[in-house]
Amino acid sequence: MSELLLTVMQGARRVMAAQAINANNLANVSTDGFRAELVHIGGLAEGDAISSTPDLRVGTVRTTGNALDVALTDQGWIAIQTPEGTEGYSRRGDLHVDAFGQLVNGIGQPILGNGGPIALPPFQRIDITSDGSIAIVPAGAEADTLAVVDRIKLVNPDPARLVRGEDGTLRMNGGAQAVPDPLVSIQSGSLEGSNVNAVGEMLKMIDLARQFEAQVKLMRTAEKNSSDLATVLRLN
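Given the sequence above, the corresponding structure tokens read:
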């Protein structure tokens, strides 16, 4: 009986972990550039094994007209600096310049360029080209005085090597850094929305809730069987 109960409890833990990923997907249905997580649940022989990989479908791209909004045209990632100072990857393209002159995304993650986080001098105009190059008209300069100051690091690492951290940022396993990929391109004046399918995630939530309910019923059955067996043994 104990083996049955242990197996059922392992199944319930896997379902709960899958529910947490599902809930995170639903919470980010409106987050620009968010990539949903696809859950992979291991078999009984693998114990509590559960993993996830990023959903590589591109989200819906909308036009904003803002020169600092960028959207990746296909597969690939924008390199950002994580809170730990390491390199991470995001598709969030709602960029702006913070109080320190750094180019950051909507949640304040610094955007990486050729030599680290991109810092911009005061400017009156900015253009971001499809290869990530950033050209500005410096403050006080002639309108046709464009100067290229840096280039956004665009990468496209093997999805199998990407892992999602607790903060939701993707990184390469082992602390590796992806090399720039010249085939990755962006379009300025647009933003990519989340690729989460809200209806699909709601259906998954219902299915997972039913699975968890079934596991709980099995645990109750196992406990009852164990209790009944103990009663019979006492009578003998």
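The helical segments are 2-27, 198-235. Try to locate this feature in the token string yourself.
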